[in-house]
Amino acid sequence: MEKIFNQYYPKIKSFVRKRIDDEGVVEEISNDVMVVALNSTCTFQNKSLFFSWLCGIAKHKIVDYYRKKKLKTILFSISPYFEEISDGALNPEKDCLKNELKKEIYKTFSEIKKDYGKILRLKYLEGLRIKTIAKIMKTTAKAIESKLMRARLSFKENWNYDKKED
Q1: Going by C-beta distance under 8 Å and a sequence separation of 6 or more, which residues neighbour residue 83?
Q2: Which of 51, 54, 164, 165 has its CB surrounded by the most CB atoms within 10 Å?
Q3: pTM (2 d.p.)
Q4: How many whole angstroms separate alpha carbon 52 and alpha carbon 78?
Q5: Dihedral of the alpha carbons of 88, 90, 93, 94, in degrees to the nearest 10
Q6: What is the tens place of the pLDDT at every residue in 53-88?
Q7: pLDDT digit string (tens) for 15-24?
Q8: CA-closest candidate to residue 62, choices 35, 23, 25
């Protein structure tokens, strides 16, 4: 196993580095690839080169990384508070908390005014522009901007995830 790690880790790291600029993320993904590979060598069927198989694992890890990054960008980047509450749940060590976080977000949506939840969903989950939301809700863009601001405040007031006991 150590031989496999020493032989392929630098190559995988180089492969990942070509697709991701953040050196910390490169290290993390490369390590994940090697752990998965070492734990799954029995599933390798020699239908390709071992390095190609490793690159396939790496590609999946890279796609997962960009999916998480996109989710975080779409859902949380506009509001610093949304980003703050997401940071703890979207790092790889706490991957299992994503579903819990998602449930809590939807629960909070259901606890605020219906229009507020709808606006937040359209804006942050579906990634729609203010003008598009205004058309959907048959109102003006200015009205949506105002409601969006109030919706964020309402969401923040009703957010209970951080208040749970550890």
Answers
A1: 72, 76, 77
A2: 54
A3: 0.45
A4: 39
A5: 70
A6: 999 999 999 888 877 776 655 555 545 555 555 555
A7: 999 998 888 8
A8: 25
